[in-house]
Amino acid sequence: MTVPPIEVREFRVGDQAKVERLWQSAGVVPQGSDAATVIDTYVRARAHHATILVAAVSNGADKSQIAATVIAVDENGREGTLHCVATCREYRRRGIGRATVQAAERLLQSRGVLNIKLRVDEDNAPARAFYRNLGFKEANSCYLTKTLTTVSCDNNRLSSAVGN
Ligand SMILES: CC(C)(COP(=O)(O)OP(=O)(O)OC[C@H]1O[C@@H](n2cnc3c(N)ncnc32)[C@H](O)[C@@H]1OP(=O)(O)O)[C@@H](O)C(=O)NCCC(=O)NCCS
Known about the structure:
Blueprint: E1 6-10, H1 16-26, H2 35-45, E2 50-57, E3 65-74, E4 79-87, H3 96-110, E5 115-117, H4 125-133, H5 155-161
Parallel strand pairs: 4-5
Antiparallel strand pairs: 1-2, 2-3, 3-4
The protein binds coenzyme A.
């Protein structure tokens, strides 16, 4: 299969609508959030520790088409995380996801990151195969979640719990 020429580069404001569409169709936006909010959060965090990378297709016809994305986050100078790893359906299985994630790895490594963690749903077999192909090892741990609801709070007990 032909691999279109791609340029992996940083997200620009003009990419916003295309990236939102890609994330919505790929289902990578965290539950309870939306693509615009995720972009806004990471663009604002850019100066500190997060970079949105996009794979722009330069096929002559539409130079600004976005084929894939990844958000690379330097969590603490040693450990990085990846988010919103996605490739447009029509561009899958052409090595574009791999090239994009590898660019994120290089970026994090250049910032001193030694190890990358990411979360993938257990039933997402294509993504698990993709990450294995890239050399990721599945860790023997599980992901826990709890929705925090309004609970009655005894202020005295809370104060003593935090040492006041
Ligand atoms: C997972 C995803 C990003 C892969 O993107 P991609 O651009 O198609 O991946 P690549 O073409 O770079 O694949 C590299 C290798 O990964 C493996 N791989 C990728 N997709 C695969 C699939 N559907 N089934 C099995 N292996 C797969 C293959 O080994 C592939 O190499 P090969 O094509 O030479 O066999 C893409 O399928 C996607 O966007 N999925 C929906 C969003 C998602 O689940 N993201 C991950 C959230 S954690």
